[in-house]
Design goal:
The chain is α/β, with parallel strands linked by helices. 29% of the residues lie in helices and 20% in strands. The chain has eleven helices and 17 strands. Helix 11 (330-339) links the parallel strand 15 (312-315) and strand 16. Helix 3 packs parallel to helix 4 and helix 6 (196-210) runs parallel beside helix 7. It starts with a helix and ends in an 11-residue tail after the last strand.
Length: 365
C-alpha cells in the first residue's frame, strides 16, 4: 500500500484514478492532491468528513464516478461540483442505496440522507453543459424524478437511469434533448404483475418526441428468465431503427422474431449484445447441409443474415445464467461469421474470436 501511495505521489501527470474497494481509497487521498492533469476520478464514496474535505479539493475534473456514496459525500456534491462547472462533463452516481428483493430499500447510512431530488437538482442547475448523467439504483431518484430534472441539462449526450416499479407516473412530456445519443435503462422487475413493461413503453414514447437522435440503446433486466416482449422491440425499431448503431439487452432474453426484426430494420447496427440461444445456433449448423428443412428460418444465425453492418456480436448470456451451459465453439462462430459476412468479432464467456481478412495482391513485372 505504501509503495502504491508513493507511486501516485510521483505521478505528477496522473490523468485517471480508479479505486472502488471499500476502505482503500482513504490511503491515497493525500497523494492525489495537486494533480493538475487529473481528469477522471472513480472512487468508493463511503467516506468520513475529513476524507471528503480532501476529495472536494480536487478540481478541474471531467468525469466523476461515485459508487456507494454515503450521506456525507452526497451532501457535499452541490458545492464540490459547482466549482467544476466549466470542466465537468460526466457524472456517474451508483447505488447510494441498495435495492433488495421486492424493491425494498437497504440504506447505506440513513434513508433520509440518500441522494434526493433537492440535492440532485442543486447539482444539475450548476452544470448546464453536462454531457453524461448516469444515476443508477439511487432511490428516491426514480425515473420520473430524473426525467423532470433533465430540464437543467439540455446538452446531454448520454443518460443512464433505473426504473422502479413503485414510483410516480411518468410526466406527459420530457425536456427536448436533441444531442442525446446513448441511453441505458436498468429496469427493476420483481412484482408478479409488474408495471415495468408499461413503464418502458411509455418511456419510449417520451423519448421519441424528446430525443430523436439516439444511436445506442441498452436495457438491463434482473434475470435471464425474463423475455422482452416483441411488441417493445417493434416499437423500438419503428422509432430508432434507422439510427441505431449499438443495441444491448443484458440479463434478459429476446424472442427469435425480435432478432429478425432488428437484423432487417436496423441497417446501421454495428454491435449487438444479446443472449445467443446456443441450441438454435447448433440447429442451424446441423441443418446447414440440409437447407430444405424449415427449421433453418428460425435459427439465430440465419436471422442475423440481413444485418449488413454488424461487426461485433457479444453473447451476454454467459454473464447471467448459472450452472452448466453449452458455450460457443469455433465451428459455431465460423458459421455465425459465414451467415453475417460483415461480422468480425464474437465475444462469449470471456473468449474473443476475431476474423482476419487476408488480401493477396498479385502483380506482374
Amino acid at each position: 500500500m505504501s509503495d502504491c501511495r508513493k507511486a501516485i505521489e510521483l505521478c505528477v501527470s496522473l490523468h485517471t484514478f480508479r479505486c472502488t474497494e471499500a476502505n482503500v481509497i482513504p490511503a491515497f487521498l493525500k497523494a492525489l492532491q495537486d494533480k493538475p492533469n487529473l481528469k477522471s476520478l472513480r472512487i468508493y464514496g463511503s467516506l468520513t468528513t475529513e476524507q471528503i474535505n480532501l476529495v472536494s479539493q480536487m478540481d478541474g475534473l471531467n468525469d466523476v464516478f461515485l459508487e456507494y456514496a454515503n450521506w456525507r459525500l452526497v451532501d457535499r456534491l452541490p458545492v464540490w461540483f459547482s466549482g467544476m462547472a466549466k470542466t465537468l462533463t460526466t457524472i456517474v452516481l451508483y447505488v447510494s442505496s441498495v435495492i433488495g428483493p421486492g424493491g425494498r430499500i437497504f440504506t447505506q447510512i440513513q434513508r433520509s440522507s440518500d441522494l434526493n431530488q433537492i440535492t440532485l437538482e442543486a447539482v444539475l442547475k450548476e452544470l448546464p453543459d453536462l454531457r453524461g448523467l448516469h444515476v443508477v439504483q439511487c432511490p428516491p431518484i426514480d425515473q420520473t424524478t430524473l426525467l423532470e430534472l433533465l430540464q437543467h441539462t439540455p446538452a446531454l449526450e448520454s443518460l443512464s437511469l433505473t426504473t422502479l416499479e413503485k414510483s410516480r407516473s411518468l410526466p406527459p412530456t420530457i425536456p427536448l434533448l436533441p444531442s442525446l445519443a446513448h441511453i441505458a435503462i436498468d429496469a427493476r422487475y420483481s412484482m408478479t404483475s409488474s408495471p415495468t413493461p408499461n413503464i418502458l413503453n411509455t418511456l419510449l414514447d417520451l423519448l421519441k418526441a424528446s430525443a430523436p437522435n439516439l444511436i445506442a440503446f441498452t436495457l438491463k433486466l434482473p434475470e435471464r428468465t425474463i423475455v422482452i416482449q416483441h411488441s417493445f422491440i417493434d416499437k423500438l425499431v419503428d422509432v430508432y431503427g434507422n439510427n441505431l448503431k449499438k443495441l444491448a439487452f443484458l440479463d434478459a432474453s429476446l424472442e427469435l422474431e425480435s432478432i429478425g426484426r432488428i437484423a432487417e430494420d436496423c441497417p446501421l447496427l454495428e454491435r449487438l449484445d444479446v443472449a445467443i440461444p446456443i441450441r438454435d445456433v447448433v440447429r442451424s449448423c446441423h441443418f446447414v447441409r440440409l437447407p430444405l428443412l424449415s427449421d433453418i428460418q428460425y435459427a439465430f444465425a440465419s436471422l442475423l443474415t440481413p444485418a449488413e453492418s454488424l461487426t461485433t456480436l457479444v453473447d451476454v448470456d454467459a454473464h447471467a445464467q448459472h450452472g452448466v451451459r453449452p458455450s460457443l465453439n469455433l465451428e459455431l462462430v465460423e458459421h455465425l461469421m459465414e451467415s453475417v459476412p460483415t461480422l468480425r468479432t464474437v465475444v462469449s464467456d470471456r473468449r474473443v474470436w476475431v476474423s482476419v481478412r487476408i488480401v493477396i495482391i498479385l502483380s506482374t513485372p
